[in-house]
């Protein structure tokens, strides 16, 4: 019988070192002479970075002013009653030394879960992009903040927009017994992509015409087209404060950028002295056991104050050094004679 050779499969890989896995390979041998010094070097590097981060973080200045008004002795206690409208309160504070600039002002909220799923999706992205069709028929995700009691569409709709933070602040410096207002800069506090890509005002002028037949969110004191009538680039859906609020926080205790102090004689920071903070108290948080605070802070090359990052590096570095010592002791005690 004649034996026919089997034909080669067309899918057979080429007979090369790469396709046939015949390339030379190298596998490191992790001996004690390599592992122990490696752990020491890694540990020392982490400790060095951790010390630098910790010292830098400790150098950042932070001043927190709680104005919730939960206690009768608090300056804003009277304003914490929801039945009182258009309430204002004043807090005094003193700076012993120069508060180095640029100074950033944040508002902080606690026990506020912006990351809750139903709350986070309660908005209409097409509406916020300026689509006029959605002004008359908001997305179902906005319910129950899509229409008012008279069946008029709410713009912007949804729980996220409806709960926008609306406390306002004015800062005064006490000079020779008189108040001198500190200029606060509210430009550029939102993400560039939010203002220029994600959110858009409807086309056409004046802006108020696009909102005909709609109503403002229930908890808003004024409509979206009235957020800043002095600046067309800071009005409507591209208002800086609105954009900052709409970018949700990941944790229940958070703070968001409110203003910066960078103008005139305050470019170097806030001089030492007495200051007065005037608060327009509109946002009530005691109903869900929350707290409010105003935060003044400067930044370093690594950002704001964050001791955790430096401590984490120090802990990891210390563990590496400790483990290298343990491995050295074990190696010295149990090594085999032929390894001498």
TrEMBL record:
Q: Where are the transmembrane segments?
A: 29-55, 311-332
Q: Which Pfam families match?
A: CDC50
Superkingdom of origin organism: Eukaryota
Sorted alphabetically, which keywords does the UniProt record give? Answer: Membrane, Transmembrane, Transmembrane helix
Compartment(s): Membrane
Family annotation (InterPro entries): CDC50/LEM3_fam (IPR005045)
UniProt record similarity statement? Belongs to the CDC50/LEM3 family.
Query: Can you say what this protein is called?
Result: Cell cycle control protein
Source organism of this protein record:
Xenotaenia resolanae
């Amino acid at each position: 019988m004649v034996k026919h050779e089997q034909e080669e499969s067309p899918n057979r890989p080429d007979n090369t070192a790469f396709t046939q896995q015949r390339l030379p390979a190298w596998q490191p041998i992790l001996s004690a002479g390599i592992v122990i010094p490696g752990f020491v070097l890694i540990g020392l590097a982490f400790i060095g970075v951790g010390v630098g981060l910790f010292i830098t973080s400790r150098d950042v200045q932070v001043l927190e002013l709680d104005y919730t008004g939960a206690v009768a002795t608090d300056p804003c206690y009277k304003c914490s009653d929801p039945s009182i409208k258009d309430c204002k309160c004043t807090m005094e504070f003193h700076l012993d030394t120069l508060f180095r600039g640029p100074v950033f002002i944040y508002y902080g909220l606690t026990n506020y879960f912006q990351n809750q799923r139903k709350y986070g999706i309660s908005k209409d992205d097409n509406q916020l992009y300026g689509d006029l069709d959605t002004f008359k028929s908001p997305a179902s995700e906005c319910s129950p903040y899509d229409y008012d009691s008279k069946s008029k569409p709410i713009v912007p709709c949804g729980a996220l927009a409806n709960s926008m933070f609306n406390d306002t602040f004015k800062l005064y410096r006490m000079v020779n017994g008189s108040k001198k207002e500190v200029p606060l800069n509210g430009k550029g506090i939102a993400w560039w992509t939010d203002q220029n890509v994600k959110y858009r005002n409807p086309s056409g002028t004046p802006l108020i015409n696009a909102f005909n037949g709609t109503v403002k969110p229930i908890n808003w004191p004024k409509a979206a087209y009235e957020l800043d009538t002095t600046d067309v680039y800071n009005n409507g859906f591209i208002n800086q404060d609105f954009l900052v609020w709409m970018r949700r926080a990941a944790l229940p205790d958070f703070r968001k950028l409110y203003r910066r102090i960078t103008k005139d004689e305050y470019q170097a920071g806030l001089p030492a002295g007495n200051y007065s903070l005037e608060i327009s108290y509109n946002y009530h948080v005691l109903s869900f056991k929350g707290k409010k605070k105003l935060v003044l802070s400067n930044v370093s090359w690594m950002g704001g104050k964050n001791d955790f990052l430096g401590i984490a590096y120090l802990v990891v570095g210390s563990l590496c050094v400790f483990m290298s010592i343990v491995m050295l002791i074990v190696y010295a005690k149990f090594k085999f004679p032929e390894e001498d």
